[in-house]
Amino acid sequence: MMPESAIPRTTTVKRAIGLIELRSIARGMLTTDAILKAADVELLRAHVVCPGKYIILVAGAISHVRNAVATGQQIAPEVVVDHFILSNVHPSVFPALTATTEIEHVRAIGVVETFTLAAAIVAADVAVKAAPVDLIEIRLPFALGGKAFTVFTGEVSAVRSAVNTAAERLKEDGVIDSFAVIPSPHKDLISKLL
Question: 148 and which of 120, 130, 134, 182 could share a cystine (Cβ 3.0–4.6 Å)?
Answer without folding.
Answer: 120
